[in-house]
Amino acid sequence: MPVAPTPPPEPDEAAGKRLRITRELTIPFAEIVLRTSRSSGPGGQHANVTASRVEASFDVLASQALSESQRARVIARAGERVVAVAQDERSQTRNRELALKRLAERLARALAVPRKRRPTRPTAASRTRRLDAKRRASQRKSARRRPTGEE
Questions:
Q1: Residues 34, 55: contact at Cβ < 8 Å?
Q2: Is beta strand 53-59 parallel, antiparallel or unpaired with respect to 81-86?
Q3: 24-46, pLDDT tens digit by residue?
Q4: So what's the pLDDT on residue 11?
Q5: 12 dihedral zone (left: phi>0; alpha: psi -120 to 50; beta)
């Protein structure tokens, strides 16, 4: 299956257009490589002649949009190259939108800083439930034993 790179958008079209990742971060479309190929799976004659599958890839190391800390976080959590593929729809345009959306979601997940866990103590009710369960298990097991004194 031949993979044909999509020609980059015209300079005036790409100027100012960016993919929003988070509220603070956007990536220029010039840093995203879009490739199209024929979609796999059913689709009849239409699938055999149209390159509707879209693969969007983002080279983290070459990006100018990411800071050093962001770059390190994405590489650690998603790798040096982040890829998203879409072949859900018949339309290449719709698949392009889906691939870019999935790429943005992957990058946002990789950039998200997990909240620090604050240790808590067990509640009184949970302690009671745990002890009740232990007591029931103990009684169940003691009921399996032979009665003492009979042999």
A1: yes
A2: antiparallel
A3: 899 999 999 999 988 876 666 66
A4: 42
A5: alpha
Helix (H), strand (E) at residue 95: helix 92-111
Smallest Cα–Cα separation from 9: which of 30, 36, 28?
30
List own/partner pairs for 99-103 with CB under 8 A and 24 or more apart: 99/34, 99/54, 99/55, 99/56, 100/19, 100/32, 100/56, 102/56, 103/19, 103/32, 103/56, 103/57, 103/58
What CATH number belongs to 4-111? 3.30.160.20
Q: Look up residue 31 and give its two tokens.
A: 């840093």
Full-prediction pTM beyond 0.90? no
Q: How does the average pLDDT of the chain come out, rounded? A: 85
Amino acid letter, 16: G
